[in-house]
Amino acid sequence: MASSSNFRAHFVGLCFAALLVAASVPAFSAEKHPSTETATYKNPILFADYSDPDLIRNGKDFYLVASTFHFVPAIPILKSNDLVHWSIIGHVVSRLTMSPAYDMQGGQKYGRGVWAPAVRFHNGLFYVYFPTPDEGVFMSSAPRMTGPWSEPVAVLAGPGYEDPCPFWDEDGQAYLVHSKVGAGPLILHRMSPDGKTVLDEGKEIMRDAKNLPTLEGPKMYKRNGWYYIFAPYGGVPVGAQAVLRSRTIYGPYEYRTVLAKGNTDINGPHQGGYVETADGKGWFVHFQSRGAHGRIVHLEPVRWEDDWPIIGKAAEGVTTGEPVPEYAMPAVLKPTPKEKPQTSDEFDGKVLAPMWEWNHNPVNERWSLTERRGFLRLHTAFSPDLFHARNTLTECLQDEAAEITVRMDLEDLAPGDRAGLSLLDFSKSYVAAVQGNGSTRLVFSDKDVETEGPAVTSRFVQLRARVDGDHATYSYSLDNGATFTPLGADVKLAFSWWKGARPAVFAFNSDPAAKRLGNIDIDWVHYTSVAASHRDR
């Protein structure tokens, strides 16, 4: 087994300067440090849909990125100092420009867009590679994880590619490994040193449909002279995690299953990234498919035996681990405060808070935080339904059970306008204020079937969605939040377009002959974690 310093010298994603910082601080373990002596964490570390996670360490900081599909800005960046508590610090891609359909022009891109990204550090720059399955493999780079990020460049143009990962070897030669849409085989290309383009047609390095079906999401590392590819197989809900290794980068590769469900109730534990803390201990972040909540994030310890990793909990002599429900906190230089990604927003700033993502590219001329300070203003435009509405603003659920409440000013709605709160998924469910000819009424909608609520004569209304597992209910308040009245039936939420259901605020006009378009002013969105009832999902 190589020393931790030898591994860090080869481990892609760690900058040389960061290694010097880490080396200058004495390593410590949970057993030796009083503040972490008995500290443990529980899985999942993020009960939120940060699908296809990848991560790196830079000094004391860990950074995690995830897929976003059709949501924009794309690829959230989360930061932590302890691998357990995370906050959102930004996004890599501000807008998807690869097709007019990302603007809902000539079509739409639900479930397409940004698939599994990879993050690495090389030669003074952070790199994020990501595929869009219809357009190619793209790369953005930045001097800091907070940006500014370069505009994406097409490293590999054309449809059919998925899940790329770059690798720079000790001799400076760059490579790109990826799978294909539909999962597998794994293809390896030589790449220009600046990481901007592939230099050949690529070579197939792994195909085994019998033993490694649906092979995808490869992440490449080097340790103790071995090339490793961490790659999931078997599909999102039920798959497992494999590791491939070879003494030469083009193979042949041998492989093992290193993480599987085992005797746990954690289905499909796979697809993620490997990282080391400053003391040389290994950790693996992966997702679990959790129904309408999407793919939530777990953290597993990693130990190495005979130059093979074993992820999670495994008995002596067993090489396939299983997920841990609880484990000792990683030994870190500076623990992160016990925080979660941001959720609530008062809309008091000049820019949107970092948790927000639009459904497809927004029309920037039709939303504002400055036209009325302290409010988010959404101008309406025609749409036949919620799925085609522009400027729908969304965020991730962060809990198994939560309440999301929005306060809206209805004064400037025009006939045909509807504005409200949704848990965005296949059902198109929402509660909204609808402006008719001279009157405003609340409605509940589920699968395009509307239930009328009361007329609204007050200027302000509060709308609420409560999530409990895979179920949701809606309610409203006309007395400034003193009381809430249910509206509509229980909604069964669903995993949709490769994403979990998401709280969303929206405004659109459903009348194609509307003579005037209005707007909605959203005062705030409040998110509250609540106790789950553990009802059947």
In short:
With 537 residues, the protein is mainly beta. 3% of the residues lie in helices and 42% in strands.
Characterise the protein shown here.
The strands form 8 sheets. Strands 4-24-27-37-29-30-31-32 form an 8-stranded antiparallel beta sheet, with no helix packed on it. The protein folds into 2 domains: 4-328, Tachylectin-2, Chain A; 357-529, Jelly Rolls (Sandwich). Residues 1-36 have low confidence and may be disordered. It is globular, with a radius of gyration of 24 Å. The chain is 3% helix and 42% strand. A hairpin with a 5-residue loop joins β12 and β13 (186-191). It has 537 residues and is mostly beta strands.
**Class from helix and strand fractions:** mainly beta
CATH class of the largest domain: Mainly Beta
State the strand order across the main sheet: 4-24-27-37-29-30-31-32
Question: How much strand content do the residues show?
Answer: 35-45%
- Poorly predicted spans: 1-36
The CATH architecture of the largest domain can be given as 5 Propeller
Mean pLDDT: 92
Provide the domain count: 2
Strand segment count: 38
At the fold tier of CATH, the topology name of the largest domain is: Tachylectin-2, Chain A
Rg computed from alpha carbons, rounded to a whole number of angstroms: 24 Å
SS field, number of helical segments: 2
